[in-house]
TrEMBL record:
Entry annotated with the keyword Aminoacyl-tRNA synthetase: no
Coiled coil (residue ranges): none
Source organism superkingdom: Bacteria
InterPro entries named in the record: LysR_HTH_N, LysR_subst-bd, WH-like_DNA-bd_sf, WH_DNA-bd_sf
Species per Swiss-Prot/TrEMBL record: Halovulum marinum
Keywords attached to this entry: DNA-binding, Transcription, Transcription regulation
HTH lysR-type domain mapped to chain residues: 6-63
Keyword Magnesium (UniProt): no
Molecular function terms from GO: DNA binding; DNA-binding transcription factor activity
Family: Belongs to the LysR transcriptional regulatory family.
Name of the protein in its database record: LysR family transcriptional regulator
Classification via Gene3D superfamilies: Periplasmic binding protein-like II (3.40.190.10), Winged helix-like DNA-binding domain superfamily/Winged helix DNA-binding domain (1.10.10.10)
Length: 307
């Protein structure tokens, strides 16, 4: 009985002889002489414990054992080649899987932009976007459950590396029959005393804090009729005619029956910002390449000024 231990080179020699049915042609194909090739075949047969080739001076045939072994040998070589290729691709960051949490408002255009860019530039990378709230993203990044996050948290946590990738102004969302919807120009002061749909402190509250700072700076006090946590809910309430709202400009892509958007001049320091965050230990080639693709894809939305 053979030892069962053989080398990949011996398999290559056997497969080549089996395909050519000629030691001379196989030796030429393998760029070697016939005697070493014959020794490799004999060593392989000894390791397998079975005769794989019937050979005489004129004809070479596969034995029954050889026919069975050829299929397995071919598969082993293909798997070995794939393993080497995969390892090299992984080292270059061309394959693998990454998970990214994102705040719901990033779904209005930014997450699809990222997915399209990754599909084009890193087609063999599996990308799994997960809708989460900012505090959930930060916790998941700290624990290592996520590779990246699109979050409204600026990332003062020492365990995270953050950079601003989205900075947008606000649009005024109005019911279509609202008096301001037909105004020649809408100013921030026009919202003073107006029914207003705001953001709640539930599950983050970043946009609520921006609104509070904005209204304080402008010296106005809209009449708050409802606070909710998600932009699509804010817009649904506006569509119902319950009041006006200030929403991130990307939300202007949403359409509802009784909803309209107006431009409104807002001081530049009051923005809707989103940051790309990752754990400090997520520094492998795959993470670095994906991070680069994400930043490139969102470059036009990053805005000016410190990130």
């Amino acid at each position: 009985m053979g030892s069962g231990k053989f080398e990949l080179n011996q398999l290559r020699c056997f497969v080549c002889v089996a395909e050519e049915l000629s030691f001379r042609r196989a030796a030429l194909r393998l760029n070697m002489t016939q005697p070493p090739l014959s020794r490799q075949i004999m060593m392989l047969e000894h390791a397998v414990g079975a005769r794989l080739l019937d050979r005489n001076n004129r004809v070479i045939r596969l034995t029954a054992a050889g026919q069975s072994f050829l299929a397995s040998a071919t598969e082993i070589l293909e798997r070995a080649e794939f393993a080497v290729l995969s390892a090299r691709q992984a080292e270059r960051g061309e394959i693998g899987g990454v998970e990214m949490g994102f705040v719901p408002s990033a779904a209005f255009g930014f997450v699809p932009t990222i997915i399209a860019a990754l599909s084009e530039r890193l087609p063999d990378v599996t990308f799994n976007p997960i809708e989460m709230m900012s505090y959930e993203i930060v916790e998941a990044l700290r624990s290592g459950r996520l590779d990246f996050g699109l979050t409204r948290s600026r990332g003062t946590e020492a365990q995270l590396d953050t950079v601003r990738v989205i900075s947008e102004t606000f649009l005024l969302a109005l019911p279509a029959d609202h008096p301001l919807a037909a105004a020649a120009e809408v100013r921030l002061g026009d919202l003073d005393g107006q029914a207003f749909i705001g953001y709640s402190t539930e599950r983050g509250g970043h946009l609520r804090r921006v609104h509070q700072g904005l209204f304080a700076a402008a010296g106005i006090a809209p009449r708050l009729v409802q606070e909710v946590s998600q932009t699509h809910t804010v817009l649904a309430l506006v569509d119902r005619g319950l009041g006006a709202a200030l929403v991130p400009a990307s939300a202007g892509a949403l359409r509802m029956t009784n909803l309209t958007f107006r431009q409104i001049r807002i001081p530049a320091r009051f923005r809707s910002d989103i940051y790309l965050a990752s754990g400090l230990r997520r520094t492998g080639a795959l993470q670095q390449r994906v991070r680069g693709v994400i930043r490139d894809a969102l470059a036009e939305y990053a805005g000016a000024g410190p990130a």
